[in-house]
Design a protein that fits this description.
This protein is of the alpha/beta class. Helix content is 16%, strand content 33%. It is built from six helices and 16 strands. The strands form three sheets. It has a seven-stranded antiparallel β-sheet with strand order 4-3-7-1-2-6-5. The chain has a seven-stranded mixed β-sheet with strand order 11-10-9-8-12-13-16, with helices on both faces. Strands 14-15 form a two-stranded antiparallel sheet. The longest helix is centred in the C-terminal third of the chain and has 13 residues. The two termini are 32 Å apart.
Length: 261
Amino acid sequence: MKKYILDMKVSENHRLHKNYCLLKLTSDQQLPDMIPGQFVEVRVDNSPTTFLRRPISINYIDKETNELWLLIQLVGDGTKKMAEYRIGDIVNILLPLGNGFTIPKSEQKKEKLLLIGGGVGTAPMLYLGAILKNAGFEPTFLLGARSKDDILQIDQFERFGTVYVTTEDGTLGEKGYVTNHSILTDKHFDRIYTCGPKPMMMAVAKYAASESITCEVSLENTMACGIGACLCCVEKDNQGHHVCVCTEGPVFNINKLTWLS
């Protein structure tokens, strides 16, 4: 897939939480086609300690407004600088990068699809849910976080499917981790997609394998360049090879990883 470097304009920067912001960017150029699960690399200007682009999952593409949405967790100088962007600021973006989630074929419309996101890992689940809904599926979302204040964009998710929630402190939804939610025992799913902290994804992968459910995970390894040059993001596959997450992933079928061995 062809990659583009675009100077995009900030159309909105909304602080969702003290640790998260939703950055919306638009361009005079029509945005290229992008697949759920892909990511972008953001150049952070005027940040003296930020030398490399920052990889951010594609949260949503609004084709009507030609907007790219990025859900950003504020963890370092680069992402904190992004939280300061104002409407009209220009941001340089390299996109789209990586391989995304598998969209089932039209004859598989009866499949029950579960999209599990934890923390900022909920970000790619929104665009995936939108694409699945548009393709005729009825996705189910399971969102997990530490507390109710950490559950983000729930109104947006509800546009595309049924939403279930877990919080570690029990302040919203069921108390516990996503793998403890009753939906996993109450309903059968044919396919699971997940993104979030690695321990969470490994637990989801093992559950899916035990139930013979097709499962894809979106890895969040450190991706400094996004094009397979720096080798910061390598992951060992089940063949003993080290693959670049940024080019071979970030989405992998769990059967291609070592997690189940």
